[in-house]
Specification:
- This protein is of the alpha/beta class.
- The strands form four sheets. Strands 6-9-7-8-10 form a five-stranded mixed beta barrel, surrounded by four helices. It has a four-stranded mixed beta sheet with strand order 12-14-16-17, covered by helices on one side. The protein has a two-stranded antiparallel ribbon with strand order 5-11.
- Strand 1, helix 3 and strand 2 form a beta-alpha-beta unit.
- Helix 5 packs across helix 8, helix 5 packs across helix 9 and helix 8 runs antiparallel to helix 9.
- It is globular, with a radius of gyration of 25 Å.
- It starts with a helix and ends in a 7-residue tail after the last helix.
- InterPro entries: GMPP_N, ManC/GMP-like_b-helix, Mannose-6P_isomerase_type2, NTP_transferase_dom, Nucleotide-diphossugar_trans.
- This is Mannose-1-phosphate guanylyltransferase.
């Protein structure tokens, strides 16, 4: 706003293009600084407000349960100890005490709202949102190789606090879904190496609801295992599968979409949730919307016309231009028995094996015996290829188009977009006092070793400094980090992976 005044004060005829350009650039730079300051102040206020609300809720809970100073009541996953000061900030993405020996043991001692979610700022007490018969399944697998060396096989990204809010991705997923269900109906499927860390991060997870798969067999086996167990426990169960390592913004819209998907699933559909694309991404699969479905309490539901694999850029842009495509976030809601029926039709051997395992799962000796016999023979295949795509071809898959924000945090480039930063500065995931920059813009720096990192005159770099290794690449090539992971394995560095 100061530019017009400056220009108007100049005599007529003395305005040059250069003068106008310099004035405009000066105004834009000042605006960027002002906006960054405002964002920072708003973030601090939200964190302080969230902390006070959390303390009040915990105080009310203690009073309602007769807390006397000697008894510490059990709390749901979204209730965590209040911070000693809302102004303190976590300085490490590592939360679990049982970390690999090579990784830093810095842990965040405070809590802030769940990453990219608004449920930490909302009170669900006194509000009935529970969906009877709805069970949550959280597949917690994968090594997150595109986020190496921050994410490791034994401590993958879903165990990390990637926005320094005090909650890991799996904790945020738990927090987000708990209003629709309960701890008794929230299950997790994970591998043996992750069980201990998951139990530490989710103390309210019931032991019988942590399903440990002997080896990774991709999403169909993981979700199918949960479906077989839950169908045996409750033949009327409706299950919803949601990845442990995704970020969601707009929890109200998310919960509404899930509730609508449950209504559709009760009509024997396999239901997915379609994300409105914000740009023509080549890193996600797409869902083509079909005709509307006339189901009560599900006004947005449509049939899935088809699933599309990750496209190249021009095709992705063409998809978005039609307005008929949504991103495939891998979220599925269906009856447990319906999922098993689809498996019997399209993958009968897998269905038979999973039903046998589910029938004896709650008998540990019988479970171990049948897993040893049947699990190695199960096919390794994604749920999309196994049942979603063939079922969609015959009109048995539905989609609920949703409006909430979503990101699978698939690489350092997407992580960079999720972190706050000052104008013309890199994002910092960790202690900012360990990073010095001069004439540096864009990119991300992870100071995980405790060493000082100095950057001069470089833009859009990805620098991940861990105690045992260092990664340096560009943001543009962050999708290719898995190539260096493969090379490290081939050269005998598996212990660092």
């Amino acid at each position: 706003m100061s530019v017009p005044l400056q220009l108007s004060s100049l005599p007529a005829g003395q305005l040059s293009v250069e003068t106008m350009f310099q004035s405009i650039m000066s105004m834009m730079q000042q605006s960027q600084v002002d906006i960054a300051d405002l964002k920072h102040e708003c973030s601090e206020l939200r964190q302080a407000n969230s902390s006070l609300e959390r303390q009040l809720r915990e105080s009310n809970l203690k009073e309602s349960q007769g807390y006397n100073g000697y008894f510490r009541p059990s709390t749901p996953g979204f209730m965590t100890p209040a911070p000693s000061s809302p102004q303190m900030k976590a300085k490490s993405p590592f939360l679990s005490p049982s970390l690999p020996a090579s990784l830093p043991s810095l842990s965040a001692s405070i809590h802030h709202p769940s990453p990219l979610g608004d449920n930490a700022n909302a009170s669900y007490f006194g509000t009935t949102r529970d969906i009877p018969g709805f069970y949550v399944v959280i597949p917690a697998g994968g090594a997150g190789t595109r986020l190496w060396p921050l994410s490791r096989e034994n401590h993958p990204k879903f165990l990390l606090d990637l926005t320094l809010k005090g909650r890991s991705l799996i904790q945020a997923t738990w927090d987000r879904l708990l209003p629709l269900t309960s701890a008794s109906r929230t299950t997790i499927v994970a591998g043996p190496s992750h069980v201990t860390s998951i139990r530490e991060q989710l103390p309210d997870l019931l032991p019988e609801n942590l399903f440990c798969e002997p080896t990774a067999k991709d999403s169909m086996a993981a979700i199918g295992l949960a479906a077989a167990i839950l169908a045996h426990r409750d033949p009327d169960a409706v299950i919803g599968s949601f990845a442990a390592d995704h970020m969601i913004s707009g929890d109200e819209a998310f919960l509404a979409a899930v509730a609508e998907a449950v209504e559709v699933a009760r009509n024997d559909y396999l239901v997915t949730i379609g994300i409105a694309p914000s740009h023509p991404s080549t890193g996600f699969g797409y869902i083509r919307l079909g005709d509307p479905i006339n189901i009560q309490n599900a006004p947005n539901a449509r049939l899935v016309s088809s699933f599309k694999e990750k496209p190249e850029a021009r095709t992705a842009a063409a998809y978005i231009a039609t307005g008929k495509y949504r991103w495939n976030a891998g979220m599925f809601v269906t009856k447990a028995t319906t999922l098993l029926s689809f498996l019997e039709e399209y993958k009968p051997e897998m269905a038979s094996g999973l039903r046998e395992i589910g029938a004896v799962w709650d008998n540990e000796p019988a479970r171990n015996k049948i897993l040893e016999k049947l699990w190695p023979e199960l096919e390794k295949i994604p749920i999309d290829n196994a049942i979603a795509e063939p079922a969609a071809a015959v009109g048995r898959v539905a989609v609920v188009p949703a409006t909430f924000g979503w990101d699978d945090v698939g690489d350092f480039s997407s992580l960079t977009d999720l972190l706050p930063a000052e104008a013309n500065q890199p994002r910092i995931l960790g202690d900012p006092s360990l990073v010095l920059t001069d004439q540096v813009a864009g990119g991300i720096v992870v100071p995980g070793s405790g060493r000082l990192i100095s950057c001069l005159g470089v833009d859009d770099l990805v620098i991940v400094d861990m105690p045992d290794c260092l990664l340096v690449t560009t943001r543009a090539r962050s999708q290719e980090v898995k190539r260096i992971v493969k090379k490290a394995r081939d050269h005998g560095w598996s212990k660092l992976l």
